[in-house]
Amino acid sequence: MGGSPIEILLALIGIAVPIIAFTWEFVLVGRRRLGYRVQMDTPVTGEIESVFPGVLPQLRPSDDGRSPELKDLSVVLVRIENSGVTTIDPGDYAVPENSRVGLHLQFPQRKVIGMAVTELSDSGLGEFLDLGSGIAVREEAGHTGVIDLPRVQLNRGDHYKILAILQRSVGVGEYPAPQIRGRIRGGRLSETASRTGVSRFTVGLIAFLAVVIAVQYAVGRFDTAPSREPLDCAAGKLTVVGSTAFEPVVRQAADSYRKLCSGSEFAFAMEGSDPGLGRLDEEGKNNPGLVAVTDGAKGVGYPSLRARPLATSLFTMIAHKDVGVHDLTLAQIRDLYAGRIANWNQVGGADLPVRLVNRTHGSGTRDTFEHRLLTEPQPVYPAATCREVRYTAPPSPTHCDTALTKDMLKAVAETPGAIGYAESADAAKTSGIVPLTIEGHTATRESVLDKTYPFWGVEYAYTNGDLPAETLATAFLRYLTDQAGKDVIRSATALPCADLPNPALCQPYS
Question: 50 burial class (0-12, 13-18, 19+ CB within 10 angstroms)?
Answer without folding.
Answer: exposed
